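Duplicate of #3305? Posting structure anyway:
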């Protein structure tokens, strides 16, 4: 992961890709893909899926996507009431 891409609002994107096995189209196989991408258009994922459909034999069934920011503002937490220094 590059810091420059993260600062440009790229998010860690994970996709669960279900596809049909070429020799057994009644069976589904799962493939997990993960990369930095721009939500909500996901150009990197779409490029990968275009490659998949063009070059690979397993026909796509479905894709489930989740993404999260990697860099964000610092979070400050107040210690719990149990912390007393007396």
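Output from current build:
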């Amino acid at each position: 992961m590059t810091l420059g891409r993260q600062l440009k609002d790229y998010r860690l994107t994970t996709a669960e890709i279900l596809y049909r096995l070429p020799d057994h189209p009644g069976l589904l196989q799962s493939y997990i893909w993960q990369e930095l991408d721009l939500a909500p258009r996901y150009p990197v994922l779409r490029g990968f899926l275009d490659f998949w459909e063009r070059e690979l034999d397993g026909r796509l069934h479905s894709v489930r996507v989740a993404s999260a920011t990697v860099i964000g503002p610092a979070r400050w937490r107040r210690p719990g009431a149990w912390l007393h220094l007396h």
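Confirmed duplicate; merging threads. The helical segments are 3-7, 43-55. Residues 3-68 form one domain.
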